[in-house]
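Table S7 (text form). Paired inputs.
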Amino acid sequence: MFQHVDKQYNNIDFSNSDLRFGELRNCTFNECIFRGTPLEEVLTSSCLFINCDLSNANLNSSHHSGSAFTNCRFYGSNLFVSKFVNCKMIGSDFSEARMDGITIEEGDWSYTNLRHVNLGKQNLRKVRFNEADMYQANLEKADLRDADLTRVQLGKANIQGADLRGAILDGIDFKSLDVKGVRMDIIQAAALARSYGARID
């Protein structure tokens, strides 16, 4: 097990490194490459990853607290049972990433590419997904209470049985959604009815 504290790395290729079981605290990685890198069970705390390539990296069982991954590429990466607590993921791309069993506690996932990802039955309360792309994502029975879903692309997403109470749904196209079994609060239900032409008095 290794430990890196208060380190800064710029344009470093870690693709051939074995970074499993390590701990990273207050480190900055700017435009670094982690393609296919073993990062199983790595711990990051208050780290900053900027424009990094984590394509096909193995991050299963990793734990991230207060870290930021901004405009990073997670294409095809393994995030099985990983955990992100109050992390900033703005603009990152999770195309074809394996996210089964992931834990997301609050944090900012705005402008992320989450197309086709499986977040079914996940606790996503209070997570900010502002303008994220969740086209055809699986959100079945997900807990999205008090989440920010402002202008999220939910076309063909599966939200059956999801809990949306208290979530911000500004700019959502309700007509493109199958809301069967979805839990809504009164304000959301009224907005849904209005989208179909109902008059609420």
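Next pair, protein 2 of 2.
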Amino acid sequence: MSGVEPGTPCWVDLATPDLADAKRFYRQLFGWTERVSRQPQADGYITFLLDGRAVAGAGPSAATEIPVWSTYVATDDADLAASRVRAAGGQVVVAPFDVFDQGRMGVFADPAGATFSVWQPRAMRGAEVFNVPGSLTWSELVTPDPEGAHRFYELVFGWHLVNGPTGPVSYPAWRCGARIVAGVTPLREGLPAQLSAYWSVFFAVADADAVATLAAQLGGTILVPPGDFPQGRLATLRDPSGALFSILAPAT
């Protein structure tokens, strides 16, 4: 996965009211280190590194905002993506803007309210490593309206629905070109009620049980305990500030 092909989830970042504690938590959980942006206008934004390669970002949020991991989808034209979002019945939350010389991004919401971003790469191409322990391995839309989501994301990104055991999953997923890029699933029990629809990020791990236990020891919460699925053993967690994420030990 290159992370730069249009229509491919290419980056995730965390908005959190306690960036210092997020550094502590994810450093100990995944072995990440940090690189602070040199741009004075970046407001303390950091890039998390795994063995020196970019895997995710993080920045401060207002104390009143819900801490959240956000998914970015690569695009050749962020402004065109915004037009397609509007035409498909979604909302432009933040109109496309330039992020220094790094790229151009916009923040959108689908008709069910799930927010996501697009990334038009320039100097920063996206994550530099995927699918190894401590890096992004899967993206999944959790929504009360899967059928509406199929129509929306096909219009915006050209994604096509695939049913059955295809690629890394054995449930409905989206294909972009020849690649399976994301999954879609109805809302599940046991997750926060305020999340009516959201994009879930999955980080690869070698041992889901050990990482879930460690997350709890570090001040996080196990929302859905580790369980076996066709794609591997996974769990859904919350970090100490409340940001939701999942871990997946892929099936061998």
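The chain has two domains: 9-121, 136-250.
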